[in-house]
Amino acid sequence: MFYTTLQRIDIGRKVFTHEMTKSEAAKEFMVSEQSIVNYVKEYMKANKISVIPDVDNVLDIKTPNYSEMTKDQLIVEIMKKDIEVARAKKGYTVKGGGKTKEFSSLKDANTK
User: Which of 3, 37, 95, 99 is deepest in the core (most CB within 10 A)?
Assistant: First the structure.
């Protein structure tokens, strides 16, 4: 399909603002997921939003709806974020949990 610049920017906006995921947009607009990534970049450029280095992974992340959480749930989420930040500062991340917990070094990763 061929879309005008304004249509591509609008599709990019929908994915960027999490109205739909990258894969949902690709199916609905009958284009590849890479095209959707390019549309998001086009939207970001048009709105002078600085480019995120790994936009592919960011697009499919769903942010929790904090307004619907209880106070205790919010405290737990904040604690998780604080732990993630502390680990990033020390140079590692953790994937999995329990017996499958895996520590990954960020030494070779670009953190800027």
Answer: 37
Task: Show the tokens assigned to 61.
Answer: 């992340």
- Secondary structure class of 91 (helix, strand, coil): coil
| Gap between the Cα atoms of 70 and 67, Å rounded | 8
DSSP string, 3-61: --HHHHHHHHHHHHTTSS-HHHHHHHTT--HHHHHHHHHHHHHHTTPPPPTTHHHHTTP
The 10s digit of each residue's pLDDT in 32-80 is: 999 999 999 899 888 887 755 555 555 555 667 778 889 988 888 888 8
CA distances from 42 to 27, 62, 64 (A): 19, 21, 26
